[in-house]
Amino acid sequence: MFEFTDTKTLSTAVPAVCQRWRRLVRDTQNVVLDFGFLPQGRAKLLNHQADAATLETMLASLTALAGRFEHVVGCRLDTMNPSCAIALVARCPQLTRVQSSEACDQLVLTLVEHCQRLENVDWSFNDKLTDALVVRLVEHFPRLTCVNFSGCTNLTDASVVTLAKLRGSQMKRVNLKLCHELTDASVNALAVHCLKLTHVYFMSCNRLTDASVVNLAKHCSLLTVVNFSYCGLLTDASVVALAEHCRKLTRVDFSGCVLLTDASVVALAEYCTLLMNAYFGGCNQLTMRYWGPGLWRSL
């Protein structure tokens, strides 16, 4: 309903009459603010057209309703300009997860100052994200368990190595799809320091080799989801190691790994009894011999 309401009404009339909304916000323990899908033309409240005075009036109004956003645990800020995102985040002391494709120095500083409970960061497809920003984030948030930096093409091994060394003991999910600069050094760092990993995504990180993936498999036996699609240097050795050491795997994606053969399929079928999804699209050396109904039970 509120997406059709103009800024003035939201900031003045709604707080005065919407008692049910006030009670709902105050009685809810976990609130997520999602500004990721505000329709074009109706997002004047929080997009680039919002001036400072309008923003401050709106935030003051919502603050009165939400008790300084004390119950907000998650924010998706993709359509907000940086100044709006920073102003909102500063009012969310209980924030545990944040998603934004516009991460910048000031946003990181605001998070550091106001949001010490942060656990889950999604800054995917952010062309401004650098190693320096990631290092600053990692240094100041000891509770980090999940990070998504997919598509952040400026990142190098330095980010991942720092993440692994400082926060590896509790890290569970790492998404680094399309980070083309990453090498075996990143995977090896995760293998050594992140023993609780359950999900890893390295799609199109085409510098990776079997050596690091085998190392990861040997150290991270809790893995349930892995994506090494389009890592063209990987061979059966990687898949066999993952199958033998990570028996809890439920989903694997090796699409575009053109060096794989039937040996990979056989290993997964033999060792990974919990496997529900396996993707090998574009793996042209695989035959149809081991594919079909009842594959995993028959081997």
Overall description:
With 299 residues, the protein is an alpha/beta fold. It has a single domain (82-298), classed as Leucine-rich repeat, LRR (right-handed beta-alpha superhelix). It contains twelve helices and ten strands. The protein has helices at residues 7-17, 19-27, 52-66, 82-89, 105-114, 131-140, 157-167, 184-193, 210-219, 236-245, 262-271, 295-298; strands spanning 31-34, 72-76, 97-99, 120-122, 146-148, 173-175, 199-201, 225-227, 251-253, 277-279. It has a ten-stranded parallel beta sheet, with no helix packed on it. Helix 1 packs parallel to helix 3 (52-66) and helix 7 packs parallel to helix 8 (184-193). Mean pLDDT is 79; it is low at 24-51.
Could you outline the blueprint of secondary structure elements for this entry?
Layout (H helix, E strand, L loop, with lengths): L6 H11 L1 H9 L3 E4 L17 H15 L5 E5 L5 H8 L7 E3 L5 H10 L5 E3 L8 H10 L5 E3 L8 H11 L5 E3 L8 H10 L5 E3 L8 H10 L5 E3 L8 H10 L5 E3 L8 H10 L5 E3 L15 H4 L1
Parallel strand pairs: 1-2, 2-3, 3-4, 4-5, 5-6, 6-7, 7-8, 8-9, 9-10
Helix pairs in contact: 1-3, 4-5, 6-7, 7-8, 8-9, 9-10, 10-11
List the keywords:
about 300 residues; alpha/beta; Leucine-rich repeat, LRR (right-handed beta-alpha superhelix); 10-stranded parallel β-sheet; 12 helices; 10 strands; elongated
